[in-house]
C-alpha cells in the first residue's frame, strides 16, 4: 500500500534540467490494456447474459432460418472465455508488475493504519472532512471495494459460469473436471443459474459505483483518475 | 417364502425344454466367442445362480414410483418381477399382510444376509424419533436401518429416496431426509424422478442382475447411462430454442407450432434425466412433447426452485419470494439513486464553497 508521497523527479540521461514534477507512473500498459478489454467484455457479458435469462420476443418462420439464441449464447460464452484468459493474465501481471498491480488482490487487513485511512476516505465521501489525501494507487476504501466487489465477484462468476458451461460441454470434459465441484455445493443447477444472475446485478452495482467514484474523484479530489487509466500517469493537483 | 429359485427353474417353468436350454447356452457361448468349456459354464451359472432377492420398502411417498415401474415395456414389468428378480417383499403389491409380511423381512435378512437388494421408495422422517412414518407399528427409519444392514446394494427409487422431494421441501416439518443420510455404509444408487422413468428403473435392475454390480455412477450417485445429459441437450424442440422461437403464453401461435417452452419456465436446461430420449409409456410422449415444460422433478430440491412457470426462479434462502432481476434490479436502482443524490450534494457544496471563496 502506498502511503502519501512527495514527488520529485530528477534529471534524466539526456541532461534535461531537473524539475519538480507532480505526476507519477501508476498503471503499466498491460494493466491499462487489461482494464479496457475487461470493460468491453463485461458489458458484452451483462447484455448477453441478461438476454439469456430473458430472451428477445419470439421469431416466426422456419427454425432453420434463425440462430438468434445461438448467437447470443455464443457471444456470452466467447466473452466469458476471453474474460477467464484476461483474468489469468491479470493474476500473472500481479506477480511481475509494479506494486500497484497487486492492489486488486490484496487488502492490508491486519494493519491498523489501513483501517484508519479507509475510515478517513469514508469521511471524505460522507462530506465530513474537506480534503482527501493523495494516493498513488487506489485509496484504501477503493482498494477494499475492488477486492470485494470486483475480484471476489469475478472469481464467483468464473466459477459458477464455468460450472454451467460444463453442463453443456458434457460430463467427461475438462470443464466438468475443473468446475464440477460447484454442484456439490449447489446440486440443482437452477440455483447456480439464479446465483450467477444475482452476480450480474452485483457487477452492475460495481460499475455504477466504480464509474461514479472515478469521475467524482477526478473532479473533486486532488489527483487524476480518468487520464491515469488511459496514459498510466497520475497527476496531482495543488 | 418361496425357495430360492434359479434361472434354470424359471426357464423350465415357462415351458422351455432342456434341449432348447442347452442349445441356447451353446449359441450364446459361440456368439460370445467363448472356448470349448463356455456352454457348460453358462449352463452351470443359470442352473445354480438364484434369482436376485429384492426387498422393496415404502417410506414417506406417494407410490408413483411403483405406478411407473409396473408400466415398464422394455423389459415388461411382469418379466422383471416373475422371471428376473425374486421380489420377496413389497407391501403395496404382495399378497401377504401384517405379521406374515413382516416375517418375510426377517427371513430374507437371515437367509440372504449380504446378498439381497434393498429398493427403497420414499424416505424416512427423523423428527419426533421418526414417528411421522409408522410401518408395522414401528418408525420406518428403524426398519430401514435394519434391512439396509444386510443388503448388498441399496436402490433409491425416485426423488423422495434420492433427494427428499416434496416432504423435504421448505420448511420440511417432519425433517424428511434422503436415505443416504440414514444408510451410510452401503453402496447406494439413486434413480431420481417423480416418478423415475419405468424403463430406467427396470434397466437399472437388469444391469445389477446381469453384472452383479452397480452401473457407473456420477458425482451425485445417479447411473451415468441414464442421467448424463439434460432434457434440454436432447430435446426435440431444441432447434426452436437455438433459433429464438419461444412459446410466449399458453395457447399462442408458438405453442401450437411446438416452439421451445423456455420462457414458460421449462426446467429442461437444468434437469438431468432421460425423458427426451427414452420418453414415457413405451415411448409415446414426455411432458415437453405434450406441450408443458419440464418441472425438473429429478433434480435435488426442485420444489424449492419455483415457480414452475418462470424462467427466472426465486432466490433460495431469500426471505421474500423474488427472482434475481427483481432483487438485483431494485438494489441497482437504489445504488444509482444514492449515487445521484451524492453527486447532487457534492455539486451544491462545491458551489457554496466557491461562492465563499469569491466573497473572501
What does this structure look like?
Chain A has helices spanning 29-53, 68-96, 112-125, 140-169, 174-179, 182-185, 189-220, 228-231; strands spanning 23-25, 233-235. Chain A is mainly alpha-helical. The two termini of chain A are 23 Å apart. Chain B has helices at residues 7-13, 18-31, 38-48, 64-69, 77-84, 98-111, 127-130, 140-149, 158-162, 198-211, 224-227, 238-243, 253-257, 275-278, 324-359, and strands at residues 52-58, 85-90, 116-121, 134-135, 138-139, 151-157, 188-191. Chain B is built from 15 helices and 7 strands. In chain B, α2 crosses α3. In chain B, 38% of the residues are buried. By secondary structure, chain B is α/β, with parallel strands linked by helices. Among the domains of chain B are: 50-226, 3-Layer(aba) Sandwich (Rossmann fold), CATH 3.40.50; 231-304, Cytochrome-c3 hydrogenase, C-terminal domain (Cytochrome-c3 Hydrogenase, Chain A, domain 2, Irregular). Chain A: GO terms for molecular function: electron transfer activity; heme binding; iron ion binding. Chain A: It is a multi-pass membrane protein. Chain A: Keywords: Cell membrane, Electron transport, Heme, Iron, Membrane, Metal-binding, Transmembrane, Transmembrane helix, Transport. Chain A: B-type cytochrome involved in electron transfer from hydrogenase to oxygen.
